[in-house]
């Protein structure tokens, strides 16, 4: 039978994942009674949980798997959904109210009641966050009273009113506690259909609603934590938690008798019904201890535990003891614990009692239970409260076609929803490609990587973002982010397509194609550049490079377009370069034009010849052309001699004063 079929029959699978044991049961409603049809209990082989907190997820999951498998064999059901409860470690509670307008002509329905309770839960969550307390989940709530047009009532269903309200106590646990519980269930393919707090579950069956008019305290003493709930005036008014329980009593037995922890647990249990207990220590030696000698070993631990529980009860109950204290859980069976609680609370010992399954109302069993004591109460409450409140704490959403159950106790957005299902955040934000940094002609150069593309998000086929609100039943599609490509570059990216230059060298036409050097070695245009490389490229060679290329090793004089130059000067297309060696017969007339030494390659020259060496366009007048030869006004046909000083420039006056 599939789980969906069993759900129709009101079957529920409940798990109580405790510090020492995991208890599971399967049951269903028969009229007003809850019938347990099968149950299973497996102890942890090692201390994989401390103080109600899961420490070793794989080991706890293995024990849960054993319980699940045992129940499936007993019932023939395929169990893939489960109701669970969390211990009250780091518990925080918020008491708040909410009100909603309502059509006074319509009867109040269950959906209206659910809406008002959820509104109160969201208010509680905002109140918690306003105190700078984040990353807490609501794991359950209890209604203190309903309001019908501002008048208190016990049940809104069927009434008519213009305004409805509710006052609740909401309980919150850290995200780490809840996520570890989720992780265990995920490993064994179980989907949570209801999550509550252990004392909320326990009180649902241990203290009937008719008892809650009295000021009572329920203490669920497990192995790692003691969870507390207080009732008064028909409601549960407070919850609390003490981070110590039965293990606090077991640890001194380990130390005093030198036994393993599981052996110490066995001795502690026997002490409740035996006058003498046999044991085997870690050395293999056997021994016996009487109850009279055993009680002094655990008495200091019992005192500490009773002190902590009684102090918490008094804090929650306004400093006064309740009328009665009901103790459940396996730790409640510790010898003399109930008496010590009564003493600390200054109560009649008969008012501090242990509640086992025989006191549960409207609960039946198919067979004799192997858990008749107080340790079997909470798991029944987990099941019964799930049947009555299933769906209050969860919402269903689809993410990329997969269905998930999320907490439905506050307004959540896409970002929070994806966090709850452990969606990889790296798929939401595309990383930019890596930049390429290298050196080009001695200077640092940076090529930027491609920008990443962020994820695209849609809710019900409409474009959304990480801050968009998510509701029950929403279909979320996340198209993963795309990382940008890393930057890349080739030598050709930094070389002009037409980089060849032409010039004259000593009267001969020459061509020069510059070479790219990558890390000192010649590189082709398709060579890839890597981070840290050094690329050298100069489109214009120096005279020294030209001389080296054409094996001119000894240089006496360099002229570029007639100007005296040096080996570091660069050559451009169209230049006339003369590299004169010492052995050559140097001819020409050396003159100074506008302060610059030039050479006229002639034995005889006139003034007009200098215009071949200077950058003055006489066809495009810029004013009056002033020509001076040795500081005297010159004419185009004046002879020019070696050593002459010449000035040529444009002026806005026809003549310049001498």
Automatic annotation (TrEMBL):
Q: Check the record and name the InterPro entries matching this protein.
A: ATPase_NBD, FtsA/MreB, SHS2_FtsA
Taxonomically, the superkingdom here is: Bacteria
Keyword line: Cell cycle, Cell division
SMART domains named in the record = FtsA
| Pfam families reported in the protein's UniProt record | FtsA
> CDD domains, alphabetically?
ASKHA_NBD_PilM-like (cd24004)
Q: Where is the SHS2 domain?
A: 12-206
Q: Name one GO biological process term.
A: cell division
Q: Does the keyword Cell division apply?
A: yes
Protein name in UniProt: Cell division protein FtsA
Record the organism.
Desulfotruncus arcticus DSM 17038
């Amino acid at each position: 039978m599939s789980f969906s079929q069993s759900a129709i029959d009101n079957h529920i699978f409940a798990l109580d994942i405790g510090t020492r044991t995991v208890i599971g049961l399967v049951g269903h409603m028969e009229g007003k009674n809850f019938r347990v049809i099968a149950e299973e209990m497996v102890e942890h082989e090692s201390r994989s949980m401390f103080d109600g907190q899961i420490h070793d997820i794989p080991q706890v999951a293995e024990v849960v798997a054993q319980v699940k498998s045992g129940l499936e064999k007993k019932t023939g059901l395929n169990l893939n959904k489960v109701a669970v409860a969390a211990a009250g470690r780091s518990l925080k509670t918020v008491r708040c109210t909410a009100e909603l307008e309502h059509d006074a002509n319509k009867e109040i329905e269950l959906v209206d009641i659910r809406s008002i309770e959820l509104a109160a839960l969201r208010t509680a969550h905002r109140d918690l966050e306003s105190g700078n307390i984040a990353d807490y989940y609501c794991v359950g709530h209890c209604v203190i009273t309903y309001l019908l047009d501002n008048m208190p009532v016990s049940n809104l269903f069927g009434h008519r009113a213009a305004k409805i309200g509710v006052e609740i106590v909401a309980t919150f646990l850290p995200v780490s506690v809840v996520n570890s519980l989720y992780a265990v269930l995920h490993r064994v393919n179980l989907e949570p259909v209801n999550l509550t707090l252990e004392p909320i579950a326990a009180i649902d069956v241990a203290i009937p609603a008719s008892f809650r008019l009295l000021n009572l305290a329920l203490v669920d003493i497990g192995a790692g934590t003691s969870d507390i709930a207080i009732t008064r005036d028909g409601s549960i008014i407070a919850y609390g938690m003490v981070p110590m329980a039965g293990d606090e009593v077991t640890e001194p037995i380990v130390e005093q008798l030198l036994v393993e922890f599981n052996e110490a647990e066995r001795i502690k249990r026997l002490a409740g019904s035996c006058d003498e207990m046999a044991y085997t220590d870690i050395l293999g030696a056997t021994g016996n201890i009487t109850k009279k000698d055993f009680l002094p070993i655990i008495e200091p631990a019992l005192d500490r535990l009773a002190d902590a529980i009684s102090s918490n009860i008094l804090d929650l109950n306004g400093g006064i003891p309740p009328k009665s204290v009901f103790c459940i859980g396996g730790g409640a069976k510790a010898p003399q614990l109930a008496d010590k609680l009564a003493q600390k609370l200054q109560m009649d010992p008969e008012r501090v009692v242990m509640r086992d399954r025989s006191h549960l109302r409207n609960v039946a069993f198919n067979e004799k239970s192997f858990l008749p004591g107080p340790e079997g109460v909470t798991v029944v409450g987990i099941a019964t409260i799930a049947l009555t409140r299933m769906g209050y704490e969860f919402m269903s959403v689809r993410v990329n076609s997969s269905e998930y159950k999320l907490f439905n106790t506050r307004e959540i957005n896409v970002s929070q929803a994806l966090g709850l299902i452990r969606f990889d955040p790296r798929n939401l934000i595309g990383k930019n490609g890596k930049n390429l940094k290298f050196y080009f002609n001695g200077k640092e150069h940076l090529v930027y990587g491609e920008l990443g593309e962020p994820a695209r998000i849609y809710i019900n086929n409409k474009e959304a973002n990480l801050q968009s609100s998510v509701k029950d039943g929403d279909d979320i599609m996340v198209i993963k982010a795309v990382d940008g490509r890393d930057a890349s570059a080739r030598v050709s990216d930094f070389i002009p397509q037409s980089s060849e230059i032409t010039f004259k060298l000593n009267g001969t036409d020459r061509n020069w194609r510059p070479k790219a050097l990558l890390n000192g070695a010649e590189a082709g245009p398709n060579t890839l550049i890597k981070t840290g490389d050094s690329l050298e490229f100069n489109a214009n060679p120096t005279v020294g490079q030209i001389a080296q290329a054409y094996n001119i090793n000894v240089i006496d004089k360099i002229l570029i377009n007639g100007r005296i130059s040096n080996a570091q000067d660069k050559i451009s297309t169209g230049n006339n370069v003369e590299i004169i060696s010492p052995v050559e017969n140097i001819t020409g007339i050396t003159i100074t034009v506008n302060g610059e030494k030039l050479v006229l390659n002639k034995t005889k020259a006139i003034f007009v010849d200098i215009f071949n060496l200077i950058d003055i366009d006489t066809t495009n007048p810029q004013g009056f052309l002033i020509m001076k030869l040795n500081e005297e006004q010159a004419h185009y046909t004046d002879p020019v001699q070696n050593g002459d000083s010449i000035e040529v420039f444009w002026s806005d006056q026809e003549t310049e004063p001498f």
